[in-house]
Amino acid sequence: MNASMLSYILLSCLLLSVQAEYCGVQEIIRYTERLLDDSSVSCPCRQTAVSSCSCLPIPERGHELACFVNGTKLLLENNNSSHPVITRLYWTFQALLDRNLCKRLAHGDECQYETKGNVTEFLKTILTTYQEINK
Question: Signal peptide location in the record (predicted)?
């Protein structure tokens, strides 16, 4: 094996190991904070009401990514106009889940939750989860 082949293999392994732990922390924190400042995505959670906004899943430990995918998808469906930041968050969470990139969160691909919350509570859960990873 020559030196260029060895360096190629080492670089490939390095890239794979870096990619395997990609969680998109800074990007997700930035987008979530932007949404929390945007009052147009906020509405009350009423379990029985069929309104322009529904209650969103507050995930159990180990099911964060799957619930973040479900919650952002619900936000997109219930927000009559497509919100570019919500769209970006949804596709980021979906990619992380599909590719199993963030080992700290992707323990299950099914959203499990005991409670639901309004948009603000859901976004604060995302923010708190990613701030813990960022420590």
Answer: 1-20
